[in-house]
Design brief:
This protein has three domains: about 425 residues, Glycosyltransferase (Alpha/alpha barrel); about 140 residues, Sandwich (Jelly Rolls), CATH 2.60.120; about 55 residues, no CATH class. About 30% of the residues lie in helices and about 15% in strands. It has 21 helices and 15 strands. The strands form three sheets. The chain has a seven-stranded mixed β-sheet with strand order 6-7-12-9-10-15-14, with no helix packed on it. Strands 1, 2, 3 and 4 form a four-stranded antiparallel β-sheet that branches. The chain is globular, with a radius of gyration of 28 Å. The protein starts with 13 loop residues before the first helix and ends in a 12-residue tail after the last helix.
């Protein structure tokens, strides 16, 4: 088995090294407890990306980084940019490429998690920054690499400096090669191909192909005593898998299948498992990948493989196990959930190993920039015990320190759970860019499956917040009945979403007023309010997070009096879709209410407004009631009768309000959802990517007729252009609303 240790220099200060071995403690029985509720996966994904802001390097840190305490650094490097490797400031090519390609993998497999939580923009900024550095580090002659930079900074020299990167000074050594470092070239190629697949930058693909050709041409490992690689085959198979996925070119598939034996988790020195997963996706044969995953992703104890960064190995395994689960190659969701529960604090030392995430998070990770010290001398002086005769075994941050957000610490250094929150301990308390790659992927995968948690709008030391929602965090609610929430006794406040005059409009949670309210029996029920004036139907989509097979709720609106339509519907594969025929004399706001299941048992996904009539086979029956709002009790459990919708309404006076008329400039093919170029029912960065790809290679990436109609959001008669893609990006960034489309 390959030893997956991070090879570190031994030139660290003797004082620091001594601190790292003193004062350890251990608690037996590190089994995982099911009752803990460390399931705020939305916040975990949000936080885990900020570690890359903290480690950003170059002349664009001021403009791109979200941390208030970081600034431009090493701007005079021959090639500026990239990310510092760990708590130090050197840049080693192998973890750089591995990290960027693995982050790309996380988005490729779980784009819904990033999109739903408003994290796609942040992820894209990070992977673009990596890829820009890789391209600047590569010299091309046509499609041939003539030279490329595979390392910045001398590791030994770098480790002899303890201070912020902004003050390190200039003259760092650059490491170039014209015929080697093939494993690093392959990892760069993988990252660039993945970024092209995710976001459609054609230049990324050009460099990916060239670097892969370079790697295969020379087949030489880079000389390096910090991140020495054991093989080329894994890196090249990993890169070939990404090129096959990105291009659809079968010539890469044979290389992708040549990944060798899988015997370790996906990591910087061993990408065999990741390559095997990509090969499984390309060929349908998951036996190699799942054989290893199933041997490790089991049991209830913390999966401990090595003392050096045990938590990063654990998170990487979580990520790959969740990817296998997504592809139907096993069900490892609960195992991953239990492992993350341990990492987030349900462990023998009651410590969360993700910095800044919780009140019990590790406080003193091995990170120069965050520590507050400007030299080893200052570090040593501050960490002597008061009697002055020995080093404090738990060396801590200084008074000028900063909270490092979202970094995964190394974690327990043995299977019993031994850990010490010691800045000098680079075995237990190291943080590094490759550590967080697995954490990001695991967080995205867990949110994909469990949909728990919520992003936050304020973070210590952060002035650029990426957030976008999520459901309320907490454990799965019990399967018990309850009562309905009463309708408001006054008309609900109108939301600001204005209807479009063409096609359907999709309202995501951020486009509506989504919340919870207390029912008559004290239970907490879900609702969404939205502007529906002028539309004929509203279809509510939501996910049931319990094992219930039926769900109940209602739609209500004011037509001079409160009019309410109750529904009870079957749950299919955890999903509910129910359509409401909007009265022609409806006021501006409709309220969709879900009474069963309660509270966290439900996640509202979207509402689709349509100018057409309902196509739902579940038809309402009408009964009369009083004009006053009433409160209706539901049964303790939903009944098993066939789904029906019952309308409780008063007879309103008709109004002259008319449904919107189709535009005379409408395209020949009907628009289903403006901005939805890839026809997946949502408007995200993926739609802008689809447009860019179709413009760059229309033969391979042609949009469907409906996709073209949806994509033409400018409506200037020029067809689909890059301007449409830019407009969709503005919608994703919150600068425009869906209701603003099409732009005339």
């Amino acid at each position: 088995m390959i030893n997956f240790k991070r090879i570190k220099s031994v030139v660290l200060s003797g004082m620091v090294a001594a601190a790292s071995v003193a004062g350890s403690f251990s608690v037996a029985n590190p089994s995982l407890k099911a009752e803990a509720a460390n399931d705020d996966y939305a916040k975990l994904l949000q936080y885990s990306l900020y570690f890359y802001d903290a480690n950003m390097c170059g002349s664009e840190v001021n403009s791109k980084c979200g941390m208030t305490w970081r600034g431009n650094c090493h701007a005079d490097d021959e090639v500026a940019g990239g990310f510092h490797d760990a708590g130090d400031h050197a840049m080693f090519g192998l973890p750089q490429g591995f990290t960027a390609s693995t982050l790309g993998w996380a988005y490729y497999e779980f784009p819904d998690a990033f999109d739903d939580l408003g994290q796609t923009e942040h992820l894209k900024m990070i992977t673009d920054y990596f890829c820009d550095f890789f391209k600047k580090s590569t010299k091309l002659n046509g499609d041939t690499v003539t030279n490329f930079l595979y390392q910045k900074g001398d590791g030994t020299v770098d480790h002899s400096y303890w201070g912020p990167p902004e003050q390190q000074g200039s003259g760092r050594k650059m490491f170039w090669t014209s015929n080697g470092a093939s494993e690093i070239a392959a990892q760069y190629a993988a990252a660039l191909a993945a970024n092209y697949k995710n976001f459609g930058n054609a230049e990324d693909l050009k460099y990916a192909k060239a670097l892969y050709k370079f790697s295969k041409q020379y087949n030489q490992l880079a000389p390096n005593n910090f991140y020495g690689s054991n093989s080329l085959k894994d890196d090249q198979a990993w890169a070939a898998g990404w090129l096959a996925i990105a291009t659809g070119d079968n010539s890469y598939v044979n290389d992708a299948r040549s990944f060798g034996d899988v015997g370790w988790v996906h990591g910087w020195n061993d990408s065999f498992l990741g390559a095997a997963c990509l090969s499984g996706e390309l060929t349908g044969d998951w036996s190699a990948a799942n054989g290893y995953i199933s041997s490790k992703a089991n049991g209830s104890n913390y999966m401990f493989l090595d003392k050096w960064g045990s938590a990063r190995l654990n998170c990487s395994m979580q990520m790959t196990a969740l990817i296998a689960t997504k592809h139907g190659k096993g069900d490892y969701k609960n195992w991953a959930k239990g492992q993350m529960d341990y990492i987030l604090g349900n462990n023998p030392v009651k410590t969360c190993f993700v910095t800044g995430f919780a009140s019990n998070s590790t406080k003193n990770p091995h990170h120069r920039a965050a520590s507050g010290y400007t030299s080893y001398e200052q570090f040593n002086m501050n960490n002597w015990d008061p009697d002055g005769d020995h080093m404090n075994p738990y060396s801590s941050y200084g008074s000028n320190s900063h909270t490092l957000i979202g970094a995964l610490a190394g974690g327990p250094c043995d299977a019993s759970g031994t850990y010490h929150d010691n800045m000098g301990d680079y075995i237990c308390n190291e943080v590094a860019i490759d550590y967080n790659a697995g954490l990001v992927g695991a967080a995205a995968g867990l949110y994909h499956f469990y949909k728990t948690g919520k992003t936050v709008s304020s973070i210590e030391g952060v002035d650029k917040i990426y957030s976008g929602g999520g459901s309320s965090s907490g454990t799965t609610p019990p399967s018990q009945g309850g009562t309905t929430a009463p309708p408001s006794s006054t008309p609900p406040t109108q939301t600001t979403i204005a209807p479009s005059t063409g096609g359907d409009v999709v309202l995501l949670p951020d486009d509506m007023t989504v919340g919870t309210e207390e029912g008559t029996d004290g239970e907490i029920n879900n609702y969404a309010e939205f502007n529906a004036k002028g539309y004929k139907t509203a279809t509510l989509y939501y996910t049931v997070n319990t094992n219930d097979m039926q769900s109940s709720g209602g739609f209500g609106t004011w037509t001079g009096e409160w009019e309410q339509v109750d529904f009870e519907v079957d749950v299919k594969n955890g999903k509910v879709e129910v359509t409401y025929d909007i009265p022609s004399n409806v006021g501006a706001t409709v309220k969709a209410m879900i009474w069963w299941p309660h509270d966290k048992g439900v996640t509202i996904e979207k509402v689709v407004l349509s100018g057409g009539s309902s196509s739902n086979t579940t038809k309402p029956t009408t009964t009369k009631t009083t004009s006053k709002p009433t409160t209706t009790k539901s049964t303790s459990k939903p009944t098993t009768t066939k789904s029906t919708v019952t309308t409780t309404k008063t007879t309103p006076k008709p109004t002259t309000t008319k449904a919107p008329q189709p535009s005379t400039n409408a395209p020949t093919t009907a628009v289903k959802l403006y901005g939805d170029a890839n026809n997946d029912g949502r408007v995200t960065l993926a739609d802008a990517t689809a447009i860019y790809q179709s413009l760059g290679n229309p033969d391979k990436y042609a949009l469907s007729a409906t996709g073209k109609a949806n994509a033409d959001v400018i409506g200037n008669g020029n067809g689909v252009t890059a301007e449409d893609a830019i407009t969709i990006q503005k919608v994703h960034a919150g600068l425009l609303k869906l209701s603003d489309l099409p732009i005339k």
